[in-house]
Amino acid sequence: MNNAIFFFFYSFAHQSKILDDGIIFFAQYFPYLVIILAGLFLLFHHEVLQAEEPLQVFLEKKREMLEVFFSGIIGYFVAIILKAIINLPRPFSIFPQVHSLISETGNTFPSGHATFFSALAFSIFFLHKKAGYVFMLFALLIGIARVVAGVHFPADILGGFILGALVAFFVKSV
Fold first, then answer.
1. Is 152 one of the annotated active-site residues of the chain?
2. Does residue 97 form part of some domain?
3. For position 47, what pLDDT does the model report?
4. For 127-146, what is the mean pLDDT?
5. Which of 14, 45, 113, 128 is the catalytic position?
6. Within a domain: 71
7. 4 lies in some domain
8. How many domains are there within the chain?
9. CB atoms inside a 10 Å sphere around CB 115
């Protein structure tokens, strides 16, 4: 089933230059934009930059900001450890007909991108529900794009989402 879902999504790759460029954008460059958007959201939502004393407001809200990014970073490192332990190859390593749109190396499960952005999204969700849904959508877009690009199986993305959510919950609880 994992392979069937993978090939369904992968079938969108290599159809047109414009579509491939969009997939590459969401798989490789959009994640940087999401990190910037998360930081800006946290700064502007609390009006840190608009306050008369921005440093004071920042210090009051720094725990919330640190919690969001710390969740993502911890999740990413846990994913790296799990990748080394589980040791599953990427789709293009298994199937000769798969030609990835982006260059990736290493093992595949769980997806580090999915883990990081899921942890980030769930951390924001625990603090601000509506914005959390938006960041969950962003994480889903990144994950799907990485499947379409041929560098992850759907199970890698699902595993990353679950791991990210668990890490965000754990960080919130501490």
1. yes
2. yes
3. 66
4. 96
5. 113
6. yes
7. no
8. 1
9. 34
